[in-house]
Specification:
Elements lengths: L1 H19 L11 E7 L7 E2 L5 E2 L1 H13 L2 E7 L2 H10 L4 E6 L8 E16 L16 E5 L3 H6 L6 E5 L2 H9 L5 E5 H10 L7 E17 L3 H17 L1 H10 L9 H10 L2 H36 L1 E7 L4 E4 L1 H6 L11 H7 L2 H17 L3 E8 L5 E13 L2 E11 L1 H30 L3 E6 L4 E4 L3 H5 L3 H4 L4 H6 L9 H8 L3 E7 L3 E9 L9 E8 L1 H61 L3 E2 L2 E2 H33 L8 E3 L1 H10 L2 H5 L5 E4 L1 E2 L4 E3 L1 H18 L7 E8 L4 E8 L6 H4 L19 H11 L3 E7 L3 E9 L8 E2 L3
Length: 811
């Protein structure tokens, strides 16, 4: 009898569970659970051939949701860390499978276990030396990076972990002999071994290291959902669905519960007493259900109050309107003091919005489309609120009979939106003014990222990059500046990214422009930065002015030195020149007397015979005189260079005559070039205002340099003159086909005391004096030279009166 009674009780309990499994455990306006999962941990979770989520966790969570009376929606990722982030952000309600660890328990709440799997050691069948962790010392073990098994094994330093990405990869390396063992949950390894058809190539050894537990998890503190999950799990286990799902994915397991078929059979064989007992249990459970329903309704009201959202239902046929408590609160009304009808509702709508609301409702009733409208309402105390109203129509037999919807108090949202709009407008105005300020700055400003891509520039950047701002943005800076595919070697942007400190560079760009470029990190928010701000300034004029100032200071200093040297040298040199002339006269007189004396008696002096003295002394005196004259020329150059007074330009000068006079003084040097020296002078050139001798000095210096640059009879020297009608200037060119001038030398060509002919007695003052003389005449001098090809000096001088007809004459 006792056995029969226990059987009746057991069967009745099972029948109750079966019947209750059809009763929704949880009711809510939001009746869909969003369940998160990873998708690369078979057979718990994985993707099928169509990319859909499947596995033990997927099927079990779906069964639990069914027991709760909820629909499900799944969201999965290959990265478990991303799934955890979704749960933290509230994008999902729960994760259907997570292994328990003390660290995870700090921020997750775990359901009752849904799966327990022992962590075991698998080796190849021929291995008998591995039986536990100690026997793995020095052995190579396959580990999935950052899996809980890997984290566990890291505490044993004598184990050499061989990192793999998936269990399948771990089994592959074990079977291939790349590792000595693979430690992982037993069911997972057996699942993969069966799928890969290598069950006979692996074996389990020793005792399990530990037992791992998997559960469903919710965010820390979500006790309500956790309680519902645990109740759902209990129902799924009692109904036998858990066994079915487990057997499908892992193989049949034994459990002491009863299946629905067994319960049905037992119930069919029990008597009326068992049925009565069942009814009693059902009544008790109904009471529990009613209490749960009341609790659910209370929670719904609280949720509506917190969210400021109420729901309504309007019976269109009898004009009855039902409002939830929250709508009364939104309208500032009490249910006992207000009869809700459609007309009464419209009376509370702001008069300016009422017609718009009526039109939206009528359109929805007419065509059945939902409506969504924002409008104002008036509270009894005269205050205004803004609500968002949504509604849908329910039809029966083609007639609109009911409309349901929600009212959401969005007053604060609208206020925030207005404040945000005002703030955005304010910041937009500030931004536009700031951009206008940046565009008004004459310096080029640009923002460049780590790929050297220009993100933004101001208007002045067009002068640095040579293009319009809209073309500059999106290009690489080194491509625009240097036409290079790689960043410049001395790039200040690269230096800032490498050192996190400001950098600068002076860059010479096309058009002979000099730019000073400063780069700084764009530390807008914190110490890290992804862009660099550069400020480029065209310093061409400033550099030239500095160079001119330094040159003027240098010239002034050299002038003072030259004046002192000239004064100190000039007096004794004049004495030498005067005495040399006197000595030449004396020698001419006494040489005849000494000749007669020598005829009677040979004469000797200073170790020389008279015959030697007769020829040598005149040459000595001549050399002394020429040397003194050379000194005088140098002194005159120094005096010219040191003179701070401008020459008075009061003479009309015919430039062709100046050229001829200067070349006459160089006749001997020119004669050596024969036909390779040519004059190409244009007759009837306009007169110049200046000083002929000083211009003659320029011609002599330039021609002498050209002659010295040519060494063979095949190299030409051409002196030409012409009138440039475009500039109203007379131009004199001295060209040669000699050795040319190196670029490094060309930069210093007009600097005082710079010369490449020290060994030949060059002073480095010739071209500096030429430039000074030409500038006195308000003219200019330029040089064009190519090494190995030749050099051309062009002197441009202003005319003194309007040029008349010009004709060419070649000499």
């Amino acid at each position: 009898m006792q056995v029969l009674f226990r059987s009746i009780v057991r069967c009745a309990r099972g029948l109750v569970v079966v019947l209750l499994s059809t009763v929704p455990l949880y009711t809510s306006a939001a009746d869909t659970l969003t369940i998160g999962s990873s998708n690369n941990f078979p057979p718990v979770n994985m993707l099928d051939e169509q990319g859909r989520l499947q596995g033990f966790g997927r099927d079990l969570s779906s069964a639990v949701a069914d027991a709760m009376g909820l629909r499900t929606r799944y969201q999965h990722s290959s990265r478990y860390s991303e799934v955890l982030q979704w749960l933290e952000q509230g994008r999902i309600d729960l994760i259907h499978d997570t292994a328990w660890t003390p660290q995870r328990a700090e921020f997750l709440d775990f359901s009752d276990p849904i799966l327990e799997m022992p962590e075991v050691i698998f080796v190849r069948p021929e291995r008998f030396d591995i039986v536990d962790l100690e026997s793995l010392s020095g052995k190579k073990v396959a580990c999935i990076d950052q899996h809980i098994t890997h984290l566990y094994l890291k505490q044993f330093p004598y184990i050499d972990c061989f990192m793999v990405d998936t269990p399948a990869e771990g089994i592959y390396h074990l079977v291939a002999g790349d590792v000595d063992a693979f430690i992982f949950p037993r069911q997972i390894i057996l699942f993969y071994a069966h799928r890969l058809n290598v069950l006979d190539s692996v074996k389990e050894v020793g005792t399990p290291l530990r037992s791992l537990t998997w559960s469903m998890v919710v965010a820390k503190g979500n006790g309500e959902l956790l309680e519902l999950l645990n109740e759902g799990l209990r129902r799924v286990r009692a109904s036998g669905d858990y066994d079915r799902i487990y057997h499908h994915w892992y193989g049949r397991i034994y459990d002491g519960g009863y299946s629905r078929q067994t319960i049905g059979f037992a119930v069919g064989g029990i008597g009326a007493g068992a049925f009565v007992l069942f009814l009693l249990l059902l009544v008790r459970n109904q009471r529990r259900f009613n209490r749960a329903l009341q609790l659910s309704e209370y929670r719904l009201r609280e949720a509506q109050r917190i969210a400021s959202v109420g729901n309504w239902e309007w019976n269109i046929e009898n004009n009855a309107l039902h409002w939830s408590d929250e709508i009364y609160r939104i309208f500032g009304l009490k249910p006992q003091q207000f009869t809700a009808t459609y007309d009464a509702f419209l009376a509370r709508v702001h008069p300016c919005d009422r017609q718009r609301v009526v039109a939206a409702v009528n359109a929805s009733v007419a065509d059945g489309s939902p409506y969504d409208i924002d409008h104002r309402i008036l509270l009894p105390d005269g205050q205004e609120r803004v609500v968002r109203e949504q509604g849908e129509v329910i039809f029966r037999d083609g007639r609109a009979v009911t409309m349901t919807g929600t009212v959401h108090d969005i007053t604060r949202v609208k206020r925030v939106e207005q404040e945000l709009t005002a703030s955005e407008e304010k910041h937009r105005n500030l931004s536009e003014r700031f951009v206008a300020v940046l565009n008004g700055i004459p310096d080029a400003i640009a923002e460049i990222d780590r790929q050297y891509t220009i993100r933004w520039v101001n208007d002045a950047a067009r002068f640095l990059y040579g293009r319009d701002p809209e073309v500059i943005t999106g290009n690489h800076c080194h491509h625009l500046i240097a036409d290079s595919s790689e960043p410049c070697s001395e790039c200040p942007v690269r230096q800032v990214f490498e050192t996190s400190t400001p950098a600068s560079q002076t860059k010479y760009l096309s058009g002979n422009r000099i730019w000073e470029i400063n780069a700084v990190p764009a530390n807008f928010h914190d110490s890290t930065f992804d862009t660099v701000i550069i400020v480029g300034r065209d310093v061409t004029e400033r550099t030239h002015m500095q160079q001119e100032a330094m040159r003027a200071a240098h010239l002034s200093l050299m002038g003072q030195l030259s004046a002192g040297v000239a004064h100190e040298i000039n007096n004794p040199n004049n004495f030498i020149m005067l005495n040399t002339s006197v000595l030449q006269d004396i020698w001419g007189d006494i040489s005849m007397l000494l000749e007669r004396m020598h005829a009677h008696q040979p004469l000797h002096a200073g170790g020389f015979t008279f015959d030697e003295l007769r020829d040598e002394i005149p040459q000595m005196l001549s050399r002394i005189h020429r040397g003194s004259q050379r000194i005088k020329v140098i002194v005159d150059h120094l005096k010219e260079f040191s003179s701070q007074e401008k020459a008075t330009l009061r003479d009309d000068v015919e430039i062709n005559q100046v050229i001829r006079d200067g070349l006459t003084m160089m006749a001997n040097e020119i004669r050596k070039h024969g036909e390779q020296f040519r004059l190409e002078l244009t007759d009837q050139l306009p007169l110049l205002r200046g000083r002929g001798p000083r211009l003659e000095q320029v011609i002599i210096n330039l021609v002498m340099n050209a002659l010295e640059a040519t060494h063979g009879m095949q190299e030409e020297v051409i002196v030409a003159s012409r009138f440039n009608a475009d500039t109203s200037m007379v131009e004199v060119t001295v060209s040669d086909t000699g050795c040319g001038i190196e670029p490094d030398t060309l930069k210093h060509l007009f600097e005082p005391f710079f010369t490449t002919k020290y060994a030949a007695g060059g002073t480095g003052l010739g071209l500096a004096i030429c430039q000074s003389i030409i500038e006195e005449h308000m003219g200019s001098i330029r040089v064009d030279s190519s090494p190995g090809i030749g050099t051309t000096f062009t002197v441009s001088l202003p005319v003194s009166r309007k040029a008349k007809g010009v004709s060419s004459e070649k000499h």
